[in-house]
Design brief:
This protein has 108 residues and is mainly beta. The protein is built from 1 helix and 6 strands, in the order αββββββ. The chain has a single domain, classed as 10 Kd Chaperonin, Protein Cpn10, Chain O (Roll).
Length: 108
């Protein structure tokens, strides 16, 4: 039975390797209260357009067969288009798969 628990833990920590110029980002949590102290319900919260890069692809394939270097790396905090990419869950983590072009800036 302990072996079964270990397998499910490994499934939750699944490693993702995006293809091409795609990036996996873990979206930051949205604010739950306003500056005035009003608690916001889930439907009123803005979708945060910030997150941390979890995994990156090998880069875009160029016409000459070479790959363009990725401008972001794992661990970078980024700002991206609010509605860009595809959202999915792995275990308890909510992730976004998007193209490198959808990333607007790296927060330093």
């Amino acid at each position: 039975m302990a072996k079964k628990k270990a397998e499910s833990k490994q499934d939750a920590e699944l490693q993702l390797q995006p293809l091409g110029d795609r990036v996996v980002v873990e979206r930051e949590e949205s604010e739950e209260t306003t500056a005035g102290g009003i608690v916001l319900p889930d439907t009123a919260k803005k979708r945060p357009a910030r997150g941390t890069v979890v995994s990156v692809g090998q880069g875009r394939l160029l016409d000459d067969g070479m790959r363009a270097a990725m401008q972001v790396k794992v661990g970078d905090r980024v700002i991206f288009s609010s509605y860009a990419g595809d959202e999915f869950k792995v275990g308890d983590r909510e992730l976004v798969l998007l193209r490198e072009d959808d990333i607007l800036a790296v927060v330093e």
